[in-house]
Amino acid sequence: MRSKKVLILSSTGGYGHIAASNTLIDLLGEEWEVKVTYPINDLRFWGAPNGEAFYNFLLSNNLIRLANACVRYVTPSLFRDSSIPRAQALVQDVLEKEKPDLLISVIPFINFPASEAARVTETPFLLVTTDNDLKNWVLKVDRMKHSNFKVTVGGNMPKSRKALEDQKIPPERIETIGLPLRPHFSKEYDIEQMREKHGIGGGRKVVLVMLGGMGNRATSSMLVRLPSCS
Asked: Which side of the chain, N or C, has fewer Cβ within a 10 Å radius?
């Protein structure tokens, strides 16, 4: 009997989506065969490659406001009706080739065409969101016709649920599961051993910083410039 197979739609923008994909791979363990694909990488707008490399450049150089403006105002305009058939064809081609038992998306923008590809191939669809602001995750999903899908949210926040319900996602299709964290994150560690391993001596205070994949360079530079805490 073959292992169950899952196809994950991920993205290289920001690298947070890659971290979410890796988390799902860890959680699915040996019971599932997992394949990760990056459909946005293969999309072309006016013949040009997608802007994920530019987005990562902005994040790594601490140009956060410009990056946010691009995501909020520029990118949604690229995913107009004309790009939906292309995005659906890209996902459907992989689904027909891999024949997974489940399609999971951990990325925004293309979830309506992805759901259509899953519907046509009769593949269950799961949208795992990794943000609280779901504006770009639910782009055009009010058109979804798939009868076998669910959407997960990290926390039971009214704003997140409203964004889904405004797009005609039934409440029973929404599950609050928390954000995907690698299993080793919740593992218990010996504090003294960890201090010794990382050269943290005496009574020095420790700050835990949650870093984005591309934003970590800017965050680390900022922390270096902060005055030491006594």
From this structure: N
